[in-house]
Structure formats: C-alpha cells, structure tokens
Amino acid sequence: MSQSFKRVYLLHGEESFLINRELERIEKGVIQPGFEEFNKFTYFGLDAKGVRILDQVTTRPMIGDPQLVILKNAHQFKDWEPLLSYVKKPVDFTILVIAHPEKKFDGRTAFYKQVQKLEKEGLAEIFEAKKLYDNKIPEWIVSEVKNRGMRISMKAATLMTEYLGNNIEGIVKELDKLEINLEKGSKEFTIDLIEKYVGQSRKFGVFELTKALSMGDKDRASHIANIMSHDPKNNPIFMLNGALYSYFSRVYRVHSLRDKSDFNVAKTLKIGHAFFAKEYVSAARVFNKAKCERAFGILYEYDLRSKGIHYFQDDEESMFRNLVSDILELV
To answer: 243 near 210, Cβ under 8 Å?
Structure first.
C-alpha cells in the first residue's frame, strides 16, 4: 500500500462540501485512471449491509493493491458491528473510507474509539469538517489560499465573505476562478482582483444591505433592496426582518458601551474579529438609541403585516422594498 494513505479514513461533520472534497482527493490519489471498475467499491448507508462491506474489505483485489472501499452517507448506516470487528485489525491491501456528512460521528461509540486508536498508531485518519460560522470564514479563506501556495490579506478575505457569505462551495469555486485569472507570476489574490471577478457576478445579500445602512448610504441601500426584492424565493421578508432585528439589536447594544473600541465592541457582540466591529460602531453614529427603538417598531409592524395580522397582506416584493424604505427614513 502507498505510504501516503492510511488504512481507514473517517470523514465526518456538518460541512458536507469539505467531506466530499476530501473524499475526492483520496479517490484521485488511490485509484489510477482506468482502474475504477476493478479497485473501487462504493456502498450507500441507507441500503448497505455491514457483512457485505466486511466481505469486500477483506477480499484481496484481483488487479493490484490497494482497493478503495467507500461507505457514503454513513450517517444513515446502522450495521456497524461487522465494521467494528474490521477496524480492530484492518488489512494492508484495502483503504476504507467512511463518509459521514451532515453531523459529527458519535464519539462515544466503540467504532469511533477504535478508529481513534488506529489514528494514534498511524493507521487511520479522522477528518472533521466543522461548520464554519460567518466570523470564521475570512480566516478559513486565508488558510485555504495559503494551502494553494498563494496569498490573500485578511481584508481581501473579508471582502470575499461580504460578497459570498458562508457558502463554502461557492467560495471555493470563486477561488478557482481567481486562480485562473491571476496575472502571470502573481501569487496574491488582491482586492482589485476580487472586485473584478467576484464582485461583478455576485448577488446582493443582507450583509451588504446592512453595511450600506451602517454607512448611511441611502442610495446604495435602496439599490440593494430593490435588487433583492426581485428574488423573494431567496430573500423572503421573514428572513430580512429577522436579520435586521439582529442587526439593530447589536447597534442598540453598542450605545450601552462605555468602551466603543473595535476590539471591545467585537468582544461584546461576539462577532469574532475587530474588523467587523467597525460596521456597528459606524451604524451607532447613524442610528441613535431613539432611532433603533423606532426601527424595532417598524420591524414589528412588518412582521405582523407579513402574516396578514391587522394589515392587508401585500406581495412580498412590495413589502421588502417598503420595509427598507421606512428604515431609510430614519437615516
């Protein structure tokens, strides 16, 4: 067996895209082109039987080592006992990959503990794809770009987050695009490059809307709201209302702080990086406490209106624009 691969891989966690990408990396590294039909065997959790997988992993391949045996959708798999017996003594001609998306593997189980033991012995690898929250995305982008042998500043990574949100798959695809469009000899994803190739194709979201509000930029906020309102499927009124309530709650809390430094605001609001605090400090200058309280009243009114309570229920597109318009009257 190739020294660069383990006998058992357990890929698990909430970020399914990262699990699929790691699985693809293993597949490409283990199986030579043209040998997939002979040395690659895939099972799916809902229908797979443990004894059949056990039979396959312990059967030496007819054409060359190693063989790759994959159990996909392992979060739906129930028959672990046969595989537990296998991971106690895995063979050297098989690479077994357990792909367990959507949630963490239960670390209390005998199977997990046995794989942990194999990992300590250098025979297994446990890969956890943790869910990345918004305030961790820029750091992840910096790390991802570094792994590609390139550079990106935290400011540029934050700009990508503004454009793309926490959609990891979308971010990776945009990084691929940026890599293709790098000037010859360049190793850095600059802000100009991101604005040119990512910014032009982006769809506006709540993050950009609140940023415009924080700057007091009524024209830009109105422009963003108008574009977002044309896509009610991806921008439903209840989502906007909830996001704006969270936004104004944070702005309101800033007013209660004696220390309004970026670091203290970030720590108090639990937003991870001081860079993001600047938006809320700026917003507190645009929306004083009284204006925040009036914003809460507007949001409550539109929450009732969206549910048809005490108000005639407008179409979502109109409500979306009118809600933002009423908020902008406070600027």
So the answer is: yes
Task: Provide the residue type at 118 as one letter.
Answer: L
Q: Which residues pair with 129 in a beta bridge?
A: 13
Q: List, for residues 118-132, the tens digit of each pLDDT value.
A: 999 999 999 999 888
Residue with tokens 């030579």: 32
Q: Answer left, alpha or beta for residue 13, where phi above 0 means left and psi between -120 and 50 means alpha.
A: left
Report whether 273 contacts 261 (CB < 8 A). no
Distance from C-alpha of 205 to C-alpha of 221, rounded to nearest angstrom: 11
Residues 68 and 30: beta-carbon distance below 8 Å: yes
Helix or strand run (H / E) with residue 96: strand 94-100
CB atoms within 10 A of CB 261: 12
CA distances from 131 to 117, 217, 308 (A): 25, 33, 36
- For 270, the token pair is 């639990």
Domains and CATH numbers, the chain: 8-129 (3.40.50.300), 134-201 (1.10.8.60), 206-328 (1.20.272)
Give the residue among 208, 237, 204, 218 at the shortest CA–CA distance from 318.
237
Q: Rounded distance, CA 260 to CA 280, Å?
A: 10
Q: Which pTM does this prediction carry?
A: 0.61
* Token output for 168: 């990891």
Q: How far is CA 329 from CA 30, 144, 189, 323, 325, in A?
A: 61, 42, 39, 10, 6
The answer to whether the beta carbons of residues 211 and 306 sit under 8 Å apart is no
- What is the per-residue pLDDT across 67-116, written as a single tens digit (0 to 9) for each? 999 999 999 999 999 999 999 999 999 999 999 999 999 999 999 999 99
